[in-house]
Structures are given as C-alpha cells and as structure tokens.
Amino acid sequence: MYVEFLGLTDYRSYATAEIELPAGPSAFLGINGAGKTNLVEAIGYAATLGSHRVATDSALVRLGASRAVLRCGLVRDERRALVEIEIVPGRANRVQLNRAVLTRPRQVLGVLSTVLFAPEDLAIVKGDPAERRGFLDDLLVGLTPRIAGLRTDYERVLKQRNTLLRSAGAGVRAGRGDLHTLDAWDAQLAGFGADLLASRLRLVTALGPLVAKAYDEISAGNGAAAMAYRSSLGPDVDLPPDREALAAQLLRAMADNRAVELDRGISLFGPHRDDLVLSLGPLPARGYASHGESWSFALALRLAAYELLRGSLGTDPVLILDDVFAELDAGRRGRLAELVAPAEQVLVTAAVPADVPEELAGARYEVCEADVRRVD
To answer: Residue 121: which of 343, 308, 324 has the closest Cα?
Structure first.
C-alpha cells in the first residue's frame, strides 16, 4: 500500500498543495515551521480521522478559512482509491470514497492504513495511562475498524453513567436518592467495557512478543522489553479474554462498590481506568528508563504495531517518520533505518538532509513556507 497523491485546500498552513508521491522512501526537508509535519499529519488523518498532534479539528483549518479539504489517492494491491475529507469545525466531517459520499465518516477507516512515528510517542512510555490506552485503542481500530464504534458507545455510556452517579449521589446525601435507572447503565457499561477489554487483552497477548523483538533489534540487545495489562478490577483478578466473564466481573465490581462510586460521582471500574505496564527487565519503563531507552521502547511499540497490521491486512501500512531521526543516536538511527527500509512506502520529515539515513535515500521534497517542490 502506498499514497500516490496528496491534495490540500486550506489545511493548516497550506492554502493549496498538490503532491505526487512514489512508492518507496520519500523525505520532506525544511526548517522547523516550514510545514513538513502538516503534510504527513494530513495523510495520517486520512487514515484515522484524527491528528497525532491535536485533539480537535479546529486547528487543522487554515486561519481565516471556514473549512479544510484533503484528498488522498492511494494504491493497494494495484487497485486505486481516492479518499476526500472536508473538515468543518463544529460539524461532522464530510467524507467521500471514490467520489461517493459515505453516510458515516468512520466508514472510511481501514481504506488507508498508516503507522506514524513522532516525538509525541515518548508520551506513550513516559506519560499518563491515557496515552497507553489510546495507543492500544487506536491500533485496535486499525486492525478492526468496527472498534471505533465500540469506543464511541463506551464513552457515551460512561459519560451518561457518571452524570447519573453525580446526581444520584447528591440525592442520596440529601436523603432522596433515586437509583432505579443505575442498574441499566451498569449493564450497558459492563457490556461495552467487556467487549473493549477483551479486545485489548487479545491485542496485548499478540503485541508482547513483537515489542520484545523490536526493542532487542533497536537497542542491539541492550535490555529486555515486556508489557502487561493492568485492570481496574485489581491485580489479583483473573482476566480471561472472554466477553461474558469480563462483563460479569465488571458488574460485580460496580455492585460491590456502588456506595464509593456514588460518593465520588465517577465510574471506578472499566477500560477507562486501566493501564498498559511497560517494563525493561525488572523495572517499569516509566520513571526508570533513560531517554534513549524510552525512545527505543516507543519505536518498538510502533514497529510491533506495523508488523501486526501488516500480518492482518496482508499489505504494508504506510510508514511515517516525523522528525524522528534527529532525536536518535547514530546506532539507533542506523538500526531503525534498516528495519523500516523494506516497507512499501516510508515518508520521512527532517530539518536537514543529513538527518535522513542513506538506507532511506529516495524521492526528496523541499518544503518552504507551505510550498512543496520535488528536488531530487
């Protein structure tokens, strides 16, 4: 799979841009702030309907414009597809696939698959549990696009249940609590939560060996990486990847702790409270790993995701390396380049040509003040 065309209108810093891309490696070169990351961000957005840099779409629309449009042409198994997305802040995206308007934007998920490496990935290792949960759930959507709907359903029910807990808790404290609807929300949260939890558990089982292998390759055998899933249900609770058993465990935890949840006004059990524990040898990576070790772990997570997607899709996802090589020492830089060079398409951003390894020499584009031209 590779992207052969990217067109932008009023996206970020670009009033207009049209870029033809070949298979193999391509590098976007330019000083910081020139607009390199905006280009690869747009490709990632076409694949995921989300940005790796911002949580809301309003920042994607060029200052002074009312909407942004991105067009992404791709080739997969010698078949071509065109994804077109209109982004209007405050409204649902309008998405077309091969000129046909999709009834729901998320129907486009799975058409284009990308794996994006960026400096922000350090937060997966060093940041809060939400970063690691997001990594798992985004990868699940890449593997099984229907998970996007499951995430939306779970978040909707969680929000509603938390609202009810706050209002009911206040009523209980005033001696007039009405809890008759809480059981129904418990059942919904446990059902959607069990589906998401079971999917995460299966993913962690599949991902673990790939992460260990990738870390070993990047670090040249300097350390053993491992991961484990930590559930809000507690460290001693058995977590079989079975939906019915997990739903029962979640319901039991809610029932046993109802007074605490009512008092605090939040849902204390479910995938939204879980974490992915990353370890190097006997120690957790968060708080103990050096900067270089943290980078290696973040890269290993993305490489493992790439291998898992590649095996599931039967084709190479598009690999995007956004300003990554400048952050790495010479050894890690060379080993990463060797690992990703065989991919069907690798897109690299860098401030200077010297930051792009020889293994990824290919098409080169000069980016200057939101203007792009091929220079090789």
So the answer is: 324
Two structure tokens written together for 57: 């779409």
Q: Quick one: 166 and 75 in the same domain?
A: no
H or E element at residue 197: helix 182-218
- The full DSSP string for 286-320 is TTTS-HHHHHHHHHHHHHHHHHHHHHHHSSPPEEE
Structural domain boundaries enclosing 178? 120-313
Final residue in a domain of this structure, among 280, 313, 346: 313
Q: What is the pLDDT of residues 309-354, one digit of tens each?
A: 999 999 999 999 999 998 888 888 999 999 999 999 999 999 999 9
Give the tens place of pLDDT for each residue, 252-274.
999 999 989 998 999 999 999 99
- Sheet (strand 14-20) strand order: 14-20, 2-11, 68-76, 79-87, 94-97, 100-101
Residue 277 · residue 230 · CB < 8 Å: yes
Closest to 81 in 3D by CA, of 113, 52, 51:
113
Q: 279 and 361 share a domain?
A: no
Residues 266 and 321 grouped into a single domain = no
Same domain, 95 and 186: no
Burial zone of 364 (CB within 10 Å; 0-12 exposed, 13-18 middle, 19+ buried): middle
Q: What is the CATH number of the domain that holds 103?
A: 3.40.50.300
User: What's the rounded Cα separation, in Å, for the pair 47 and 6?
Assistant: 13
